[in-house]
Amino acid sequence: MNTVNETAPNKAINSGNEVLLMTDILWYLLVSALFAGKIYPATIERSAKILINSFLQEQDHYEAFSEFCHRVFMTRYYILQNPGYLFTNSVIHWLDPGNKHGFAGTAGWYNKLILKRKTKPGLLADLKAFTEAILDIAKDKSGENFQYWSGWFYEKNAVDQLLMIQRVGAQIGYTGEKKIMNDEWGEGLCGKS
């Protein structure tokens, strides 16, 4: 399998660890929101992170991060509202850019949401806030910050976002810094230091 450096221009070099942090967060969100209870081997995790990292590097990484979060939540909502829907149990299959029933297929949903927000800017504001909150929690791992954001989503009755803040926040609180500092999931993502 080609590394990201071999297949695309590497925009992450300038943003360094931040793109790696975003990649880790999105991996944890994806697994927590859509594949809860499944444990993946390191090889699958690394392959998924390469796909996520590639997506982050295709455009402004903040915009891509927000879009990815939105698309995961929209998929989660779809699955929860359609209990008979047969969802893939392969995270790599869902992330495959050629799978129109996976992540690639959510692009249309996201584009419709963006169009609706032009006339209703507050539409799904809790999703917009989630992207800011989870990134803030990853950068400031203090208990006060985690409690602030948990309380914010609780007050807004944004139960699903609160659940994901708790799940993903706990994961990045214990492992996020270690993974970034040691770059355990691969040198090829952002080049050699």
Notable characteristics:
193 residues; mainly alpha; 10 helices; 69% helix; globular; disordered N terminus; disordered C terminus
Walkthrough of the structure:
- Helix content is 69%, strand content 0%.
- It has 193 residues and is mostly helical.
- It has one domain.
- α8 runs antiparallel to α9.
Concise synopsis of the structure shown:
This protein has helices spanning 4-7, 12-15, 17-34, 42-57, 61-81, 91-95, 107-119, 125-139, 143-155, 159-182. With 193 residues, it is an all-alpha fold.
Q: Show unreliable segments.
A: 1-14, 174-193
Number of discrete domains: 1
| Class from helix and strand fractions | mainly alpha
Shape: globular
Beta content comes to under 5%
The amount of helix comes to: 55-70%
- DSSP strand tally: 0
Number of helical elements: 10
Give the biggest sheet: none
Distance between the termini: 22 Å
Q: Give me the strand/helix succession.
A: HHHHHHHHHH
What is the secondary structure topology, with strand pairs?
Layout: H1 4-7, H2 12-15, H3 17-34, H4 42-57, H5 61-81, H6 91-95, H7 107-119, H8 125-139, H9 143-155, H10 159-182
Helix pairs in contact: 3-4, 3-5, 3-10, 5-8, 8-9, 8-10, 9-10
